[in-house]
């Protein structure tokens, strides 16, 4: 630290910095997300407000996936700067992100698989985009067809892989290995923002491209800028235009047979298939990962607990207000309604604000005040991919799931969902105790 004060330069990866990067809050946050995801996928007791919104709007279940995307972005600066400190060149880091080169050091306790990058100082290394994408396509066949002509291309892990490739690859190529904060009080206050200036430029380009495509590109028989699910929505206003530009591009480039066929919106409104993890949403998903990168840069450049939390909460407030303004403070009548299926910018801003708030709470109790060790969520956070893949493979297997003749009440369905979720939490704790960490 004295060397840093003398030179005015922050060398990422110094021993003191590496110690600060081992934040319990990050694993705790990831654990909360994966546990809640399993609970929602298990039915969440049949309560509508715990599941996903049919089209526009925001339910509790809609917060999980963007939370994974965002926390993945938070860990990118910590992982990349750790690689810089080890002398790994930029091009090799990019190859490792793509998984074209194996830079991992394997041991008997470190298997190779992950939903998001584990931060510097944790037990496993970084994820690899190609491997994650292929794993996601494979998991799609659990619920869908394995016929090559009907194989669903996109999905949850595929969206994570694309967003990680864009955010991590760009940050690895543009982040300064040594950062000299600007002089003056203003420069010191904004040093974490200035260190990610190129990420903000990329985010602006992606938002502009997404907005232009959304409101300009359309099927010849559909109105420009349509954002509805098609079918009988809005009194059959555009029955074959489900998803607007996003749905049109998916059907044009991927084909109807390779899209998700059983969305809630299609069951309710009818109309053509729309994939909630489609191609156009990859742009705004990358923006969400870049917002996480900014939060990770705050960890790197702001030492004080109060400085970190205050910046996160201020950013959360700004993002929430911006998202609400885009949505017109309503569900259906804004310029860009909050919509998970389209991954609209209002959805990105509001869910990122929720993630910032949750991370601030976790950080305050686990790392600042040290009143909470993160239990029971930290262990699931250390093995998020194992739990995600495991609960997908065991979706219909006893003892994780069971049925009784009358499963019509919330109480019985809630008990079944809590039971299955609790079993995976126990498995995660057993794996952590045995030092088994499965990451990509």
UniProtKB/TrEMBL annotation:
Keywords tagged on the record: Membrane, Transferase, Transmembrane, Transmembrane helix
Origin superkingdom: Eukaryota
TM region(s), chain numbering: 29-49, 55-80, 130-149, 155-174, 195-217, 278-300, 312-330, 342-365, 377-398, 410-432
One term of GO molecular function: transferase activity
Keyword Transmembrane helix among UniProt keywords: yes
Keyword Transferase attributed: yes
Name of protein: Heparan-alpha-glucosaminide N-acetyltransferase
Native source species: Papilio xuthus
